Amino acid sequence: MDLVGVNANLNALGVVTPESGTGIHNTYYIQRGSTAFRKINGICFLYFDITIISTNTEDTILITNLPWCSMSVYHYAVNADTDSRIIFYTYGSELRCGAGEAGRYFGYIVYPAI
Questions:
Q1: Is residue 106 within 8 Å of residue 86, measured between CB atoms?
Q2: Is residue 8 within a helix (H) or strand (E), and if so which, with residue range?
Q3: Cα-atom radius of gyration of the chain, to the nearest Å?
Q4: In the prediction, which pLDDT does 1 show?
Q5: Distances from the Cα of 41 to the Cα of 5, 29, 38, 44, 85, angstroms
Q6: What is the DSSP secondary-structure string of 65-79?
Q7: How many C-beta atoms lie closer than 10 Å to residue 101's C-beta?
């Protein structure tokens, strides 16, 4: 069997070319920070380290232009400044959060992406 020929065309076997990026920060809520995602074969790994202002609004859109999620995923991210916690979650092609205090938040979310 010729394994070189099999490995040369992985797309024919359903393996999709990886995709990566940073998304677009909503500067109204994010003072500074970084975001990176890597989408590999339908799974997106989203890492974030952001400093946000206080938000009283549920469904606050923080980052857009992410790979579209096929299922919303929730995650508690630990605030490095206080004991406050905010729920972060993906919705469509966005990272959103619930109401919470200002501060630095960091974490990651792994979700199924289209």
A1: no
A2: helix 3-8
A3: 17
A4: 47
A5: 20, 31, 10, 8, 31
A6: SPPPBSS--EEEEEE
A7: 16
Taking the C-alpha atoms of residue 93 and residue 98, their distance in angstroms, rounded to an integer, is 17
CA torsion sign for 81, 82, 83, 87 is negative
**CA angle, residues 102, 29, 25, in degrees to nearest 5:** 130
Average pLDDT over residues 39-45: 90
pTM: 0.80
Q: How far is CA 5 from the centre of its chain?
A: 35
pLDDT digits (tens, 9 = 90+) for 21-34: 999 999 999 999 99
Mean pLDDT of 7-35: 84
Average the pLDDT over 49-68 and give the result. Answer: 90
